[in-house]
Amino acid sequence: MIAGILRRLSLSWYLFLLFTAYYMAGWYQMYGLLLLSAAMLLILALMYLLTWYLIACLRVSVGLSDEMVRKGAYAEGRVTVKNRSFLPVLRLQTVVACSDVGKILLRGAVAGRGEAVLSFPLPVDYCGGVSVRLCQLRVSDYLNFFLRRKRFDSWIKLSVRGKAFKEEGMETMLTVLPSEHLARFLPESPEAFGMNPARFEQADWGSGTAAGTDPYEIRQLRPYQPGDSLRDVHWKLSARTEELLSKQYGGQEEYCARLFLDLRTTKRQMEPQSLDAFRELAAALSAGLLAAGLSHLVCWYDDRRNGWAEMPVADGEGHLAMCAALVHVPPVWVKEPPEIGAFQAEAGISGQAADQNALYFDMELHLYGREGLLTRFSPDTYIRELEQRWIHI
User: Fold this and answer.
1) Residue 376 CB contacts under 8 Å (≥ 6 apart), including other chains
2) H or E, element range at 96
3) Count of the separate structural domains present in the chain
4) Is 234 exposed, middle or buried (0-12, 13-18, 19+ CB in 10 A)?
C-alpha cells in the first residue's frame, strides 16, 4: 500500500517536472529545456518498456526444502527466480499462497544472467497436505515509476506451453506427517497374536519400531505347514513341544493384526482439529502396534479409487509410508450415521479377516476390537490419554 503511494507520488512529480520543462521551453524559447523535456519523455517511455522486457525474461518456480515434515515443525519454502537478460532486476516481488497460512509477499532482486532464491518459513499446525502456489510476480523499473504484474493461475502450467512463464514448479505440495505419538498396547497374551514370546519380551516399546528386520533373523515360530522346507524346522523346540514348528525369518513376515480405519462421517465439512486428531491417533495406533512387535496391515476404503487400500507396516519405513499416504486421503461424507457392523461386514472383518486380530477406528475416535469397544478418545485431550492409558487387546 505505502510502496504504491510512493510510486505514484514519484511518477506525479516526474510528470510535473516534465510538463514544467516543456512549458518553460516553449514560453522562453529555450531549446535546452526542450531537449531536457524530450529526454525526460524518452526516459519515461524506456522505463515503461523496461518492465515488459524484464518480466518476460524471468523464470520463476516454487519449491520446498523438504517434501515431508512432522507436525509442529517449520518447513522452508523457496521461490527461485532466474534472470535470462543482462540487465539486473532491482525491485522484484512475488506473492505465494499457502493453504494453511494465506498469502505471503516476498521482496528481492536478481542480477543480470543471475539467479535469486527468496525463502520464507512455513509453519504447519495440522497433519495433511499443504499446498504452496505461486500467485503473482511483480517487477518495477529502475526509477520505480511503473509496476508490471503477472498472475499465475492453476491452469497456467498446463495451457501456457513454451511461454516465458511456463515453469513446472508453479505449485508444490508439502506432506505434514503426524507427530511421533505412541499408543500403548498390552496384549492379553503373545500367543493370541501368533507371536514368539521371546520376541514379545525383546520388543522396543518406546521407539515405535519392531525388533528384527534382518532377513536372516528368526522373527517367530509357527506350526509346520505342508510345503515348508525341512531346513526351516526348529528341531530342538519341536522335540520339546512334540509338535513340528517352522522358523519364520525377516523376509517371511506375516502380519499379526489389521487396523481398519473408517473414514465415513456425517459432517460435510470437518474441522481441521477433528481431522488432525483422527490422523494423529491412527498413526499412534499403528506405531503402538509396531512398538509391541506386532506387524500389521492398515486398511481403509479410498472413495477416490472406489476400493480398499492396504499399507503393510512391518518396520519404521513402512509406518512412514503409511502415514504419508493416509494424510492425503479425504474423509467420506455419508447421510446416515455409520454403523460398525456394516463396515465390518464390508471390510471382511467377520469373514477371513476375523481369524486375524482386527482393530477398528472411526472418525468419532472410537477404537473397537473383536469383542467390542476398547476405548474412546477426546479430540482435545487425546495426547494426554495416549500417555496415560494402556489399551488391552
Assistant:
1) 364, 365, 366, 367
2) strand 89-98
3) 3
4) middle
Residues 333-342 have pLDDT tens digits of 888 776 666 6
Closest Cα to residue 95, out of 3, 170, 4, 6? 170
**Is position 90 within any domain?**
yes
Give CA–CA dist 218/92, Å, rounded.
61
Same structural domain, 130 and 277: no
Q: Which grid coordinates belong to 110?
A: 536478481
With CA atoms as reference, report the closest residue to 12 among 143, 101, 118.
143
Which DSSP state fits 250? G
Helices (H) and strands (E) in the chain, counts: 9, 21
The domain of 331 spans 184-217+252-392
User: What is the distance between the alpha carbons of residues 173 and 267, in angstroms, rounded to a whole number?
Assistant: 26
- DSSP secondary structure string for all residues of 1-36: -HHHHHHHHHHHHHHHHHHHHHHHHHHHT-HHHHHH
Cα angle 260, 263, 268 (rounded to 5 degrees) comes to 170
What is the pLDDT, as a whole number, of residue 186?
A: 75
Confirm if 65 and 121 have CB atoms less than 8 A apart. no
Rounded distance between C-alpha atoms, residue 247 and residue 361, angstroms: 33
- Please provide residue 377's backbone torsions phi and psi, each rounded to the nearest 5 degrees: -115, 155
The ranges of the chain with pLDDT < 50 are 154-168, 192, 194-216, 251-253, 350-355
Comparing CA positions, the residue from 150, 48, 156 lying closest to residue 93 is 150
**Gap between the Cα atoms of 339 and 360, Å rounded:** 12
272-291 vs 316-326: helix crossing angle, rounded to 10: 160
How far is residue 46's CA from residue 287's CA, in Å, rounded to a whole number? 64
Same domain for 385 and 330: yes
Cβ proximity of 220 and 248 under 8 Å: yes
The predicted-structure confidence for 258-309, as pLDDT tens digits, reads as follows 899 989 888 888 888 899 999 999 999 999 988 887 888 898 887 776 777 8
Q: How far apart are CA 196 and CA 217, in angstroms?
A: 13
Residue 218 burial (10 A CB sphere; 0-12, 13-18, 19+): middle
Question: Would 22 be classed as within a structural domain?
Answer: yes
